[in-house]
């Protein structure tokens, strides 16, 4: 089975994440997309994150009606901070019959050369890249690489940061979040402070 790994802190998961994940599952050769909830992205401050369990629960709630989308807590059990290369090795050992690919935004492709052991990742895994609006110069080194697959997915510019900030301000962000996730956030009073 061909699995696309869509990593994120999902703090919170929103409709933009679902649009991209579902598009990859339906309009590429991937059989499933696993939304890998990252406990700690080395490039983000941990203090801004909701508890791992709550973020995983929101991903479960958001994906339960999408048979090709699966939440994954694989990184919860690995040493932190999490590095994608370590997670990939672990997944290959645990699921030897699956073929794993990465899903990332075009903005992440620009900084991919800063990832730990990025050469090893590129040597063994395809990377599915979805478009993002950006003013930066494109990294042609990766864009033309044979393992990089540019997917003509919708451009979605919704951020979890925007959602958190607006919940704190008392704004209505419900259209940006799956209903069950919004109810979970509202019930638990998340992001209010």
TrEMBL record:
Its EC number is 2.7.7.18. Keywords: ATP-binding, NAD, Nucleotide-binding, Nucleotidyltransferase, Pyridine nucleotide biosynthesis, Transferase. Pathway: Cofactor biosynthesis; NAD(+) biosynthesis; deamido-NAD(+) from nicotinate D-ribonucleotide: step 1/1. One of its GO terms (biological process) is NAD+ biosynthetic process. It catalyses: nicotinate beta-D-ribonucleotide + ATP + H(+) = deamido-NAD(+) + diphosphate. InterPro entries: Cyt_trans-like, NadD/NMNAT, Rossmann-like_a/b/a_fold. Residues 5-165 form the Cytidyltransferase-like domain. This is Probable nicotinate-nucleotide adenylyltransferase. Catalyzes the reversible adenylation of nicotinate mononucleotide (NaMN) to nicotinic acid adenine dinucleotide (NaAD). GO terms for molecular function: ATP binding; nicotinate-nucleotide adenylyltransferase activity. Belongs to the NadD family. It holds the Pfam family CTP_transf_like. Gene3D superfamilies: HUPs (3.40.50.620). It is an enzyme of class 2 (transferase). Transmembrane segments: none annotated. PANTHER family: NICOTINATE-NUCLEOTIDE ADENYLYLTRANSFERASE-RELATED, PHOSPHOPANTETHEINE ADENYLYLTRANSFERASE.
